[in-house]
Amino acid sequence: MLANKSIALKISSLAEVLEYAAGSLAGLRIFDASGKQTEHISYRDLYLTAEKRARQFQALKPNILQPAIIGLFAQTNLSFITDFFACQLAGITPCPVPPPAISLGLEEYVQRTKKMLAAVQAKALLFDATHAPLFDFFERLASSDAPNLQLIHATSLPTPGGVLAQKPQQDEDAAYIQLSSGTTHAPKGIQISQQAVCRNLHTILHEGLKIQPSDKAFSWLPLHHDMGLVGFLLAPLMGAVPLDLLPSQAFARRPQVWPKLMAQLGSTISFAPSFAWGLAADRTSTTEAQQMQLKLRIAGVGGDMVRTHDLNRFAHRFADSGFSLHKFHPCYGLAEATLAVGMGSSPQNSVDRLSNSQPLSDWEVRIVDDVGSPLPKLQAGHIHIRGPSLMTGYWKQGQLFRLAPQEWFHTDDIGHFTQSGELVVTGRAQSLLLVRGRKVQAEAIELAACAALELSHGSVMAYQDHQSTRIVIVVECSSRAEVLRQQWIETIREVVFHVCGDAADILLVPPRTIRLTTSGKIARRTTLERLNKQRR
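Above: the chain's sequence. Below: its structure in token form.
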């Protein structure tokens, strides 16, 4: 059974997405870093378990969850997936929370999580079996940031009530709260309506992916991120196609298990940022690759700047495995747009076109200058978007700030249109550097430096000192050998001069100094704050 356009258009809520998927024979499986299957469930059984959990939510006395926003630890497991859909059935708004990260101390993680939940006025945080050990830690670290946050053990939920009281969902009702990654600002809550997510899902499936009955989805993307949640949980269910998941921590430990599992399972659709495709290629030997047979129809690229050298490495490594460069499909999107704004509408046969995406028909996209005047094709400027899948608004400091109807949303991204109308995203406005009166993207310098030194994504960060206006290049370096460090400095200076025609200050720092967001982007604001503290 496959979702067709006429049925998909009638689906108006995520509860209906689950109900529809439950009528198919498809389901989902979860694997670990060794490639072993750890969990599996049919979409039909997922509906039944979510419906039971929803009745538990409704049986709470007093029922603090209706209507309310509830935080859920977005681990890649059946507990989170079940609870997310239980919220949809029970009329509760879920807010996926990033699970603990190695880069954060536990105390800092708890305080950050409480601040995020306070910002969206969450009433409760649910602890499943995986996160039960954190319960006491959250309870001990009482915080004025979220004094009214209820901590709920999943094991303490009451016996399910008799009949699920399911109220009809309205188009404008909240489907979920997406926490922004905080690339250049403090994390915010992004409220996505039922109408917005269902429209975007329909457009992704039938216009962007052109979903087919034989498709099988595979993802390691985190489920607290829009690409993972919308693209590789909600979309496969609306498409009623099989879904295989690998926790992002498992991918980080063993990137090579991703293509290996895709080959074994016959996956046809997978998406990831550019660096991940390159990393998987680097961690897979030529012999290992030759033993695989990839059946990928669409290898999507999104979540960050498209880096063609990463994609070339993957295409070269798996050339004898049934993979070719034209299977890469660049995409452009953001959480404020639910997910997708532009997708590669046709195979990309040229390396030069690997950064291009075609705006989806639901969206109006314009490129404007600094004062908001439209720019012609080929001229870079600020990207503004407008369409039915835009967020309802931002949650900040416990208040929802709604977008005005038909308002153009300023994405903070920089890009231009090609002569054929394709969209090319070149960077973010917040990372623009002004060099001798010319605008240069920090990403361009970072990419060139990483390539010159053969460093992984996120090892170099460029910024402009506001006092001296000089360009500063932060580079993670583990070596203490003075000769090597000096060679690196000279190489980076040459790279910077080649890219922007100016000199730069080079700062070599220990590994893990440059912070990344939960979606793998450089967290510029957080990293700069950390560097400034170290200098005091």
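The longest strand covers residues 409-417.
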